[in-house]
Predict the structure.
Amino acid sequence: MDWTDAMARPPPDGMRRHRTFLNRRAAFVRCRTRSLLLLDLAIKFGLGSRKAYYLVEIDRKFSTLKVDRARLLGIGWTKAQIIAEHADQGNIDDLLSKAESHSAKELQTILADGDASRAQHCVLFYLNDDEYELLRKVLQQRGARPAPRGLHGKEQALVKALKELE
């Protein structure tokens, strides 16, 4: 009897469970290896680590779903990353339609609370160091918290300060 005869027979029950475990483990290792490879390539090609991690997250999510690659590529990586955490096979077409017809900021709002019509305005200030320190101090006194990239809750703190002036 050669090895092909042995492989043709169904394995004993214990062996079947072991083979299932090994197949699952191999799939995990392939997925993990693919993610690490993508991350390594992204960093080598000069992408920032944040964008590289987003691309790995997008790959992990959408490689398991049946999705039209042309549509996914058409919405761009920013919107793909936004919809990735909400996507499953049942809602992927709806999410892609929303991503195609809304901006990234509107898409975040829609997925967070469902209302894209809520008016939001972006305000940009150019301040010197003294002016920025004054603004930071006022905002922190009204509830804004320091964060690695600025202040959290600055919008609410600014509105609170402006209402005090009314």
